[in-house]
Amino acid sequence: MAVLEANDVVKEFAEGSETVRVLKGASLSLERGEIVALEGPSGSGKTTFLTIVGCMLTPTRGSVVIDGRPVDPKRPAALPEFRRRSIGFVFQQFNLFPALTAAENVEYALNLKGRKGPEARMESHRLLDEVGLSDRRHFLPRDLSGGQKQRVAIARALAGDAPIVLADEPTANLDARVGEQVLGLFRDLAHREGRALLIVTHDPKVRAVADRAVRIHDGVIFN
Amino acid sequence: MVDLARKLLFHDKTRFAITVSGVAFAVTLVFVQVGLFEGLLTNASLAIEKTNADLWITARGTPNVDFSNAFSETLVQRVRSVPGVARADNLIVWFARVSLPSGASENAVVYALKDFERWGLPWSVVAGDPRDLRRGKYVLLDESAAKRFGPFNVGDYREFNGQRLKIIGKTREAKSFTTNPIAFVDYRVAQAFEPNQLDNRATYVLVKLAPGADAKAVQDEIRRRLPHNDVRARDEWGQRSRSYWTDSTGLGLNMMMTVFLGCLVGVVVVAQTLYTSTLEHIKEFATVKAIGGTNGEIYKIIAKQATIAGLVGFAFGTAMAFGLRPVMAGIDLKLVLGPQLVGTVLVGTLVFCLAASALSFRQVARLDPALVFRG
Which of A49, A24, A22, A23 minimizes the C-alpha distance to A36? Predict the structure, then answer.
């Protein structure tokens, strides 16, 4: 069963007096445990598509269904609830909170999802163990390497059992060896925990871990 | 629960120190201004509060206790005959010119009674006995006079309006609002200072009510018998004396302006530092939104940061103000920092800091969580 379904998604932006159509009927579905690589050149609409299926923007037309629940484009105020319950993010720039330790970064995400106190703390430790950072729990991001930061970001994305993880160029800021390790980690987690993983990338190595790769070009997704 | 507000605030220690310094400076400024003014105002009604008179009879329209006007001393007889009056005595409060050994002269406010002890005056005697005043040309002078009159000792002589008086004692904290020291002399001695104005005349009648007497009824009856005088209860008279300085002289407005400026400095510093801090952390707030946080959660973070900055700034500002108290006392300035003032400034600090933090809310409300995807 698909946990993410995007059907004929159109997104238009106003630029001065003109309307620019960035997505022109993009469709994609993801199953649990599936890894899909979304490739495409700059300006093809990758990030816009990611923000729409990540419930940060509503589509101009078309439908998005997250974990069986349709996203109502007329209710943007409901979007944070979709993000909180169903979606984990991994960003190119990691976007960790520099003032929080690795464990606190994960725990804070759990707090936002309604899990608090010792239970959240223990869960954050478990997630960091899963990504191989049990000995770096109390390190601030500035004291972690790029690969370790990305592992913390992955642990944060997994927090709260989100069925969908969206990753934006997760290996772009990592060297080749560390990038491969991170991709291996993605593959293991997706298959072991049954999460659907959509990776937006330019990196050809992502194909090696993905179950399938799709291309976006000029606002349309080609399987 | 991870306290992101506190962690972000303390992560940038320099910015936090700047915010706290701004609040602390504003708090100290408000405390010092209001405290000094309160200290001065205390002097404006101190003698009224220390005297154990229930009613004060003054010349019509007397604005405050220092600026007295004389009336016939025989009026006291009419007051004594009013039912409910236990005791009534004439009091003279008058400015006297004091000639100094240096050849200069200064003013003192003279309080003159026949029986000081009966009315609880002077309220703090550090040397001498007020009962000796009735024996002749003697004076009890407040020790604060040393600042203006030069050093003096018990046994020294000073000229008051040309009359040579022997200093037979010293008092403490007996100063008028105008900072002139108070001198206590016998009633007849004070009358001789200015015979053309004070001979057979007094400036106040002090009234002590009989136990169980109806103060309002006694007041009304005295008003009926002395239609050309004012009769005021102690609290009302104290309030009138203080109000004269705040309302009629512009000093109150002046103080309000300084307090306003102090608050403004605090608000601007807090608003500016929180606003720039919000802008600097905008990507982190976008991340909070991206991972499911709402605007409300980010507002709470900013408001909590403002509250912490306000509380820490208030603590430092209060400590500085209390630390200044002995310094001020050393230069003869009374800094009154009562619990009511401290409580009011605390509430004001928190309200202003929270109001200042609201400036950042607009940035947060407009914040696009998709910012996290931009490099």
Answer: A49
Q: Which of B11, B289, B370 sits opposite A98 (nearest CB)?
A: B11
As given in the structure block, the two tokens for residue B213 are 């007497």
Q: Across the A/B interface, how many CB contacts are shorter than 8 Å? A: 75
Minimal CA–CA distance to B20: which of B260, B274, B261?
Answer: B274
Q: What is the pTM of this model?
A: 0.77
Cβ of A50 under 8 Å from any chain B Cβ?
A: yes
Residue A145 tokens read as 């390497």
Q: Which tokens belong to A105?
A: 């970064």
Chain B interface mutation, best of A42, A83, A165, highest count of B Cβ atoms under 10 Å: A83
DSSP state of A42: T
Q: Does A109 touch chain B (CB under 8 A)?
A: yes
Alpha carbons B178 and B64: distance in angstroms, whole number: 12
Helix residue spans in B154-281 (DSSP H): 187-191, 195-198, 215-225, 234-248, 251-280
HSE at residue B72, side-chain half, CA atoms within 13 A, is 7
- d(CA B108, CA B106) in angstroms, rounded, equals 7
pLDDT tens track for B111-149: 999 999 999 989 889 999 999 998 889 999 999 888 888
Q: Does A85 sit within 8 Å of B292, measured CB to CB?
A: yes
| Closest residue in A to B286 (Cα–Cα) | A95
* Chain B residues in contact with A89 (beta carbon < 8 A): 290-291, 372
- pLDDT tens by residue, B16-67: 898 888 889 888 988 988 888 888 888 888 889 999 999 999 999 999 998 9
The pLDDT of A129-154, averaged and rounded, is: 92
On whether any CB of chain B is under 8 Å from the CB of A113, the answer is: yes
Query: Hey, how many other C-beta atoms are within 10 angstroms of the C-beta on B339?
Result: 7
Name, in order, each residue with C-beta under 8 angstroms of A62's C-beta and a sequence gap of 6 or more.
A6, A7, A8, A9, A10, A23, A25, A26, A27
The distance of B276 to chain A (nearest Cα, Å) reads 17
Q: pLDDT, tens digit, for every residue of A52-87?
A: 999 998 999 999 999 999 998 888 888 999 999 999
CA distance readout (Å), A79 to A82, A92, B283: 5, 22, 19
Residues with Cβ < 8 Å from B216, sequence gap 6 or more?
none
Q: Can you tell me the ipTM of this complex?
A: 0.90
User: Does A143 contact chain B (CB < 8 Å)?
Assistant: no
Q: Report the C-alpha gap between A176 and A157 in whole angstroms.
A: 22
3-state secondary structure B312-351: HHHHHHHHHHHHHHHHHHHCCCCCCCCHHHHHHHHHHHHH
